[in-house]
Amino acid sequence: MKDTLQQTFILGKGQPAIPSGHVDCLLLNPPDIPTRYPYLGLAQLAGMLRSHGVSVAILDSSALGMTGSDVIRAIGDIRPRIIGLSIMSLTLRSAYQLIRAIEASYPETVVVAGGAHINADPGSVRDLNVPYGFIGESEYEFLDFCTAILGGREPSQMPNLIVHKHGEISVGARKIVDDLDALPWPAMDLLPVERYYSPSTHHRTMSFISSRGCPYDCIYCSKVDRIRVRSLSVENTLDQLEWLVHGLGMEWIEFVDEVFTLNSSRVTDLCEGILKRGLVFEWGCGSRADRIDEELLLLMKEAGCRKIGFGVESGVERIRYLDRKRVTNDQIRNAVSLCKRHGIKTQACFIFGHPTETPDEMKETVRFARKLGANYPSFSRMMPFPGSELFERAKADGEVAPDVWTNFMLGNGRLPLYSPKGVTPEQIYRIFRRSWFEVYFWPPNMWNNRDVLVSLDYVRKAAKAFRDFALSRDY
Going by C-beta distance under 8 Å and a sequence separation of 6 or more, which residues neighbour residue 345? Predict the structure, then answer.
């Protein structure tokens, strides 16, 4: 195993949920969206810094239920020299407000922005009015950046670094990490691990990334370009899983790879390794309906797999193929049926508001979802994420303003949502809202999820997840 700390970590003796005392760098997830799983990019950066002697803390304020004022007070206790914010499109407004408060309260602190939104739209560093940002996979570059700042030097231009000066930005060349095994392990022990949970289980939960990249090209995805797939070695993955299970006491691990079963032979080796080492934990993953078969599924189940998520997107093949999600309805039905047959739960994700989609086709999606009978269907409304082909098309067609995300950030507009021509946002909203109730409370699907009653804690977590996703949001 890597790193003395990880070899000797004892359950219950990790870093407090809210760090205190001076650190060189504070990595921060802004408050806004209820967090069920950690954003592992922060843990990966923290692992790199810590392994090179840079003191670091993580503050997942969403998971901790903190307000912006809470975060500002915590920063005062920590007094970091550098604050790195991970920003998603959904947390853009919250991050902007937090940055302004940090500037006012701690002007000596260097703020640097990263995360999915910055990666898709480097120009947002200028809109956020921060001096630095990062795109891509920047573990090594972020270490060099922090070393320069802590040494009192101006960071030199490097790959993935965004520099903002006098209203102008320069963006370093995009670079990825070729050898994932060479990276230090993510510092998951710095996360508030007790706060994470999966609605599909009542077990102690952590997420994990065993590969990076995706070969597919769905039009709504915010990745800037198709990124070559790279994986941790099976031995490295098993070592880290062993630490999570025996060191951090994890009982459920959620693999959040883009397509976990993309390489079936690797999944086979991993499952056989789990069994050989006698690692006992349950886990879930995401796949595609055309990337699963019965032989692989049986081995995955034997190794602890209890849930598989599928991006279905629409119940209408015409829509799915226009999105370049080239999976048939029969493949989806067969994949879910196969999982049911062998006692593996399924999640099915749907989106309303695809280009050219009609209200009748959205209603057909609801009917398809109900008959599909996945344990955990989820519904959302289409967002024109920066970096996606959908966003570029919508801008070119005048359906979305080029500055729609900046306006949202500044509080001048609602969260950007996409509506196909001839369909109003109100029509989509009504279908979106009803879908949760029409599918979850259909008697056969209620029966599918009867095991939620196994414990009061399980009921509480499942109810909270339903409230957060079905009742408390309109996207």
Answer: 200, 284, 306, 307, 308, 339, 375, 376
DSSP state of 247: I
Q: Where are the domains of the chain?
A: 19-171, 197-382+417-471
> Is residue 107 classed as helix, strand or coil in its secondary structure?
coil
- Residues 447, 133: contact at Cβ < 8 Å? no
* SS3 (DSSP) at 35: coil
CA atoms within 13 A on the CB side of 381: 24
For residue 173 the two structure tokens come to 């060349």
Q: How far apart are CA 362 and CA 314, in angstroms?
A: 8
Q: What backbone torsions phi and psi does residue 344 show, to the nearest 5 degrees? A: -105, 125
Strand partners, 347: 309, 376
The residue count for the chain = 475
Task: Count the neighbouring beta carbons within 10 Å of the beta carbon of residue 251.
Answer: 16
Is the CB of residue 344 less than 8 Å from the CB of residue 308?
Answer: yes
Going by their DSSP bridges, the two strands 205-208 and 252-255 should be labelled as parallel
Nearest 5°: the CA angle 179, 183, 188 is 140
Residue 343: left (phi > 0), alpha (psi -120 to 50), or beta? left
CATH class of 19-171: alpha beta
Confirm if 85 and 111 have CB atoms less than 8 A apart.
yes
> Counting Cβ atoms within 10 Å, is residue 333 exposed (0-12), middle (13-18) or buried (19+)?
middle
Residue 69 CB contacts under 8 Å (≥ 6 apart), including other chains: none
Taking the domain 197-382+417-471, which CATH number applies? Answer: 3.80.30.20
Rounded to an integer, what distance in angstroms lies between the CA atom of residue 363 and that of residue 432?
A: 9
Please list, in sequence order, all residues whose beta carbon lies within 8 angstroms of the beta carbon of residue 270, skipping any fewer than 6 positions away. 210, 234, 237, 238, 303
Q: Which helix (H) or strand (E) holds 213?
A: strand 211-214
**Cβ atoms within 10 Å, residue 413:** 15
Three-point CA angle 384, 88, 19, nearest 5°: 170
- The pTM is what? 0.92
Q: DSSP letter for 188, please.
A: G
Question: For each successive 10 residues of the chain (475 residues), what is the average pLDDT?
Answer: 39 49 92 79 97 97 93 96 96 96 97 96 96 96 98 94 96 95 97 85 90 94 78 98 96 95 97 98 96 97 97 97 96 97 96 98 98 95 95 93 95 93 96 95 86 77 80 83
* SS3 state at 232: coil
